Amino acid sequence: MLYNLLGAIAFYVGFILLFSFSIRLYTQHGQTIKVPEVQGKNFDDAVSTLKNEKLKYSISDSSFDDSKPPLSVIDQSPKPGSLVKEYRTIYLTVNSKMAPQVQMPDLKDVSLKQASMILQSYGLKVGSLIYKPDLAKDVVLDMIVGGKSIALGEKVKKGARVDLVLGDGLGQTQIEVPNLVGYSLREAKFILDGSSLNLGALVVDNSIGNDTLDAIVYKQIPDPHDQQNKMMNAGEGVDVFLTSPEKYDGGK
User: Fold this and answer.
1) Is 123 helix (H, G, I), strand (E, B) or coil?
2) In percent, how much of the chain has pLDDT > 90?
3) Beta strands of 146-229 (E only): which ranges?
4) How confident is the model over 136-147, as a mean pLDDT?
5) Residue 238 pLDDT greater than 70, yes or no
6) 3-state secondary structure 225-241
7) Of 30, 162, 197, 233, which is the most exposed, with the fewest CB atoms less than 10 Å away?
8) Cα separation, 220 vs 200, whole angstroms
9) Which residues, in sequence order, are bridge partners of residue 189?
10) What angle do CA 15, 20, 25 make, to 5 degrees?
11) Domains of the chain and CATH, by start
12) Residue ranges of the alpha helices (H) in 67-212?
């Protein structure tokens, strides 16, 4: 009786050990592979690398990034260096070959800062900034893609550069041309700043050295005495002709 009991116990112990060994062998317990880095590789090269390491792959998502080559791997899961079993599936995010299209967001009457944030959220980029006379400074008046004005909701390629037409904060305010003749360049700049006008071209004669701030304005365009053209838009420039104080023979 005792021998029968001991035999039964030995049989069950042996069965359990054999079953445990089989399970460990089947699941390859303790045998792991370090996931290689395929992010940044061409898709075909990435697949070849994974197969060589006895790993499977699956495209889990696609995205578009114009700074990366088309059909390149831009993300992977599990991450490089992770320990996995043989034939584990590695999920890949692949960069699209063609840029998807997105709808142009409504940017009109928003600030430049807001427009930049909105464009970024849509996968678009800020292109050139074009200023036009308008009292609203740095407020979007129009959106341009490829030289063409784009309306709200029109389709554009993701990653496209959007040129923004902005108000310059000056509008069409008319300013009477100040008389700069007889003043030094330093004084002329001060007068123009106070009149919301800018300094245009500087034309100097051969009597002036390196320092032009003390040079005297002997002529200007527009001419303040021209009654038909004595008004300018705010922000426009006045061209001045300069000579040395010694050579200037006019009076203020």
Assistant:
1) coil
2) 52
3) 148-149, 155-157, 161-167, 174-176, 198-204, 216-221
4) 90
5) yes
6) CCHHHCEEECCCEEEEE
7) 30
8) 10
9) none
10) 125
11) 2-95 (3.30.10.20), 101-167 (3.30.10.20), 174-243 (3.30.10.20)
12) 112-121, 185-194
